[in-house]
Design a protein that fits this description.
The structure is a single chain. With about 425 residues, this protein is of the alpha+beta class. It folds into 2 domains: about 5-105, Serine-tRNA synthetase, tRNA binding domain (Helix Hairpins, Orthogonal Bundle), CATH 1.10.287; about 120-420, Bira Bifunctional Protein, Domain 2 (BirA Bifunctional Protein, domain 2), CATH 3.30.930.10. The chain has helices at about 5-10, 10-20, 25-65, 65-105, 140-145, 150-160, 170-190, 200-205, 230-235, 290-310, 360-365, 390-400, and strands spanning about 125-130, 150, 165, 190-195, 200, 220, 225, 245, 250-260, 280-290, 315-320, 330-340, 345-355, 365-370, 375, 380-385, 405, 420. It has an 8-stranded mixed beta sheet with strand order 1-11-12-13-16-10-9-4. A 3-stranded antiparallel beta sheet has the order 5-7-6. Helix 7 crosses helix 12 (about 390-400). The relative contact order is 0.14.
Length: about 425
């Protein structure tokens, strides 16, 4: 949600930010809705004040036995009792229209975000590790995986497309990756581990901006709850409707959960293999900070995700997304992309974003600065600490050997009983 005061002060700048995201100007429409809401609120206050004044005057008129004046005032009060609820209803309708329009507008990009409309305009920030040069033709993960436990056919038979049954050695790798990611974040980077709800209410999904825009990308239960597309939703809503102390910040949460996505917006993309699934597991990071800490926290959060990839000895690079390629709620996003030898290209395995106060305004999440009477909105950040499925793909393709076995990264071997390689059944 946007700060209306900033929009009123600089409508041209607001529209310029939207234009960078490929969104049509909206300031005139929003300000007109805001003006109508404010005018109705002023009118409601005026009518309420006049009703109170007239009601008091009725008693005074009766006290001086001025029945004519009392009758006139009573008629006016009766009329006000009819008009005031109508104006208040109109004000609520106007406020709802304003909120709905604002809720449909994406966050504005920060000044250092590159211009552009798609991934071709994203900016390379850094590259880490060594891209492997295999002495044999590289295979993709969906060719390597079935002999190791990636069972695409049975998964599809049980649940349909974009579902995979994971078994045997890859199932052990799956478990190891999740535990490894949690251990790195909690032991070495100070995140608090959380086991959050996988089902959330409308207001929680709205707070992190999944609703209303992305309803079709979510799965909904028959009782009206939503399956989380990422634990960002549950973790960020920990501070919903709360006023925190400045000394409590920053808060850093992480969770390993299943995630559920309908992939309605990705029809036809990555239909083969394990890259894009309806159900997958992810270690998510969420940070809640003051505005002053926000910039440093974004770098820290991204560095935590990079640390995980470095410990897995995977070649990766950091990309700063252009304005048109960022998520709806993001003000700046870094994507971490791992090299996949089988595909012969870089693929996103982590995404780390700062939202500013965009989500906090939707959640009414605030903090009280030390020594201050008033409150301010917190800043929220989130990132993929470890997307289990995509890192399985990266481990399989980067660790592949000519005989079909796969070398296990050293960091994962303690989680696999010392196993050094996955071997075909």
């Amino acid at each position: 949600m946007h700060d209306l005061r900033l929009l009123r002060d600089d409508p041209a700048g607001f529209d310029a930010g939207l234009a960078r995201r490929g969104v049509a100007p909206a300031s005139d429409e929003v300000l007109a809705l805001d003006e109508r809401r404010r005018a109705l609120a002023t009118e409601a206050q005026r009518l309420q004040a006049r009703r109170n004044e007239a009601s008091k005057a009725i008693g005074q008129a009766k006290a001086r036995r001025d029945e004519a004046a009392a009758e006139t005032l009573m008629a006016e009060v009766a009329d006000l009792k009819v008009r005031l609820p109508q104006v208040e209803a109109d004000e609520r309708t106007a406020a709802l229209a304003l909120d709905e329009r604002l809720a449909a507008l994406p966050n504005l990009p920060l000044g250092d975000v590159p211009d552009g409309m798609d991934e071709t305009d994203n900016r390379l920030e850094a590259e880490h590790g060594v891209v492997p040069h295999l002495a044999f033709p590289a295979r993709e993960h969906d060719a390597i995986g079935p002999a190791l436990g990636l069972d695409f056919e049975t998964g599809a038979a049980i649940a349909g497309s974009r579902f995979t049954l994971v078994r045997g050695q890859v199932a052990r790798l799956h478990r190891a990756l999740g535990q490894f990611g949690l251990d790195v974040l909690t032991r070495d980077h100070g995140y608090e581990e959380v086991v959050p709800p996988l089902l959330v209410r409308d207001e929680a999904a709205f707070g992190t901006a999944q609703l209303p825009k992305f309803a079709e990308d979510l799965f909904r239960t028959t009782d009206g709850r939503w399956l989380i597309p990422t634990s960002e939703v549950s973790l960020t809503n920990i501070v919903r409707e709360k006023i925190l102390g400045e000394a409590d910040l920053p808060l850093r949460f992480c969770a390993l959960t299943p995630c559920f996505r309908s992939e309605a917006g990705a029809a036809g993309r990555d239909t083969r293999g394990y890259i894009r699934q309806h159900q997958f597991e992810k270690v998510e990071m969420v940070a809640i900070t003051t505005p002053e800490q926000s910039e440093a926290e974004h770098e820290r959060l991204t560095a935590c995700a990079e640390d995980i990839l470095s410990r897995l000895s995977l070649p990766f690079r950091r990309m700063k997304l252009c304005a048109g390629d960022m998520g709806f709620a993001s003000a700046r996003t870094y994507d971490l992309e791992a090299w996949l030898p089988g595909q012969g290209r870089w693929r996103e395995v982590s995404s780390c974003s700062t939202m500013g106060d965009f989500q906090a305004r939707r959640m009414n999440a605030r903090y009280r600065p030390d020594g201050a009477k008033g409150t301010r909105f917190v800043h929220t950040l989130n990132g993929s600490g470890l997307v289990v499925g995509r890192l399985i793909v990266a481990v399989l393709e980067n660790g592949q050997r000519a005989d079909g076995s796969v070398s296990v990264p050293e960091a994962l071997r303690p989680y696999l009983g010392g196993m050094e390689a996955l071997t075909p059944a």
